[in-house]
Automatic annotation (TrEMBL):
GO MF annotations in UniProt: pyrroline-5-carboxylate reductase activity
UniProt protein name: Pyrroline-5-carboxylate reductase
Gene: proC
Keywords: Amino-acid biosynthesis, Cytoplasm, NADP, Oxidoreductase, Proline biosynthesis
Its job: Catalyzes the reduction of 1-pyrroline-5-carboxylate (PCA) to L-proline.
């Protein structure tokens, strides 16, 4: 069983620490490096080993998860560059920071960049990932990496790192799109006289049921929509409005804008980090 060091004990760092320890039934395989005193107290109360700085046995950890905020990368880079071992793999969950930028500042090639989403703690998440210097990853190491990443849900490897911008727009931001739709369904129910609790129950159960149908059906979404619809009926009337307002087109335009913003964010972070490290 591999030992894993997590750099950053904030929300996502703790999510991975808990998920890993629950799977392996051992908290002593995880060590957390965290600068903030208040976070250290919480981490210790949960039973994890932690410290403000890299431990003396840093070389024992095969995988290093970088879970700090992207803006904090410059503050940890000098220490990591000094201590990182050639055989260690870095798994970055720092949004917007490219493998090339990490490689240049740490003088290290073995990097896996990931884009997880909000559902990771519930093991129903989705993580897109890109492996830099893929030829250096042995079959045994890849098996361990895939096992680690799948602890939070489904995964998808991309061959082009730029595809992680699309993953960010689709899956990283995706839960917010879903929450927005649920909110509108709830608001519609409230406008018809239902209470907030009733509206939430109607919206959630309707969507949970629809997801079950979709998961267990070989039909496409288009076919399932037709099955719910009847000529001159209520569903058809709703879709007439959706189509008139170009709801589908506008939704895709929103996702495309999110993709563009992900690319812009990466460039802004690169400039910020380079200025900090000069």
């Amino acid at each position: 069983m591999n030992k894993i060091l997590i750099y950053g004990g904030g929300n996502m760092g703790l999510v991975y620490a808990k998920t890993i320890s629950e799977y392996y039934h051992a908290k002593d395989r995880v060590f957390i490096v965290e600068k903030r005193e208040e976070n250290l107290k919480k981490i210790k109360s949960l039973g994890f080993s932690c410290a403000k700085d890299i431990p003396e046995n840093f070389y024992c950890y095969q995988y290093i998860i970088l879970a700090v905020k992207p803006q904090d990368f410059p503050s940890i880079a000098p220490s990591l560059e000094k201590n990182i071992q050639e055989n260690q793999w870095l798994i970055s969950i720092m949004a917007g920071i490219s493998c090339e930028l990490i490689k240049e500042n740490l003088n290290h090639k073995k990097i896996i960049r990931t884009m997880p989403n909000l559902a990771i703690p519930y093991k129903e998440g989705f993580t897109g990932f890109y492996i830099s210097s893929k030829s250096l990853l042995t079959e045994v190491e890849k098996e361990s990496v895939l096992e680690l990443l799948t602890l939070g849900g489904k995964i998808l490897e991309v061959e082009d790192e730029n595809d992680l911008n699309a993953i960010t727009a689709l899956s990283g931001s995706g839960p917010a799109y879903f929450f927005y739709f649920v909110e509108q369904l709830q608001n519609a129910a409230i406008s018809k006289g239902f209470s907030k609790d009733q509206a939430k129950m109607i919206a959630l159960q309707t969507l949970k049921g629809a997801l079950k149908v979709l998961e267990n059906s070989e039909d496409t979404c288009e076919t399932l929509i037709r099955k719910v619809s009847s000529r001159g009926g209520t569903t058809e009337a709703a879709f007439q409005v959706f189509n008139e307002k170009k709801l589908g087109e506008n939704f895709i335009q929103g996702i495309n804008r999110a993709n563009e913003r992900s690319e812009e964010f990466g460039k802004e972070l690169k400039n910020f980090i380079l200025n900090k490290l000069l």
